[in-house]
Design goal:
The chain has about 230 residues and is of the alpha/beta class. It has helices spanning about 10-20, 35-40, 55-60, 75-90, 100-110, 120-130, 160-165, 165-170, 220-225, and strands spanning about 5, 25-30, 45-50, 70, 95-100, 115, 135-140, 145-150, 175-185, 190-200, 210-220.
Length: about 230
């Protein structure tokens, strides 16, 4: 099983640590702030209060043995660079560093990060796109040109099959899943709505009212798709 180290337990770092731990992975959480360490201690494999910019401390912790180290330090680029350099010298297999700007990202890659993530930027893109179109439920940016979006099925799609809609030809977009809301009755006789996901739907599958579509494609093509009523 892969082992992860999370360095920096702000909102981003804590969220990553908790999610990985919930999925059954071994997680080592590190931060200088005692309160942050104590708040997550019961949720991860091990939580340590330490200065991650101190190479001796990191060696003592045994961080060189983890498979992936995630540097989620707040706004201190200097600290992120230093920790990245230390981890690279320790031959940590994967080093994922959080950055705020593209320039920071380039610097972190240059000094040894194998991957750079931009949580603030990506969340900003997602929020902005959800505000632009009321049809967008979820937006995931894959690259500067491609995205995956979850959109509410337009009224003109209702009771039509994917084959009839032919979105691949008309919009160069692929529907990779359909989410359906299925009403069901509980043991107490109450009606509740359950969500069913049709992965890799076939051309004959019919879009119903209330369905949402998971679509992958180029951003400019998805934008055209969003304008459909």
């Amino acid at each position: 099983m892969r082992q992860f180290a999370i360095i920096g337990l702000g909102r981003f770092g804590s969220s990553v640590a908790k999610t990985l731990s919930e999925k059954g992975y071994q997680v080592l959480a590190i931060d200088q702030d005692k309160e942050k360490v104590e708040s997550i201690a019961s949720l991860v494999t091990q939580a340590i209060q330490a200065d991650a910019t101190d190479e001796k401390v990191l060696r003592k912790i045994g961080i060189k043995d983890v498979d992936v180290a995630i540097i989620a330090i707040g706004k201190s680029l200097e600290a992120s660079i230093l920790v990245t350099l230390i981890l690279k010298e320790m031959n940590v297999k994967e080093i994922v560093a959080k950055a705020i700007t593209e320039i920071q990202g380039r610097v972190l890659r240059r000094v040894g990060a194998t991957k750079v993530v931009f949580p603030e930027r990506d969340m900003g893109i997602q929020v902005a796109n959800s505000l632009i179109s009321s049809q967008i439920i979820e937006y995931i940016n894959l690259s500067s040109e491609h995205s995956v979006v979850e959109i509410v099925a337009p009224s003109t799609f209702i009771n039509k099959s994917l084959q009839e809609l032919d979105l691949r030809t008309k919009y160069k977009a692929n529907v990779i899943a359909i989410k359906k809301k299925i009403p069901s009755v509980t043991d107490k006789g109450d009606t509740e709505i359950k969500q069913e996901i049709n992965i890799s739907p076939a051309g004959k599958d019919i879009i119903k009212e209330g369905d949402s579509l998971i679509v992958i494609g180029r951003n400019k093509d998805i934008e055209r798709l969003q304008k459909i009523k």
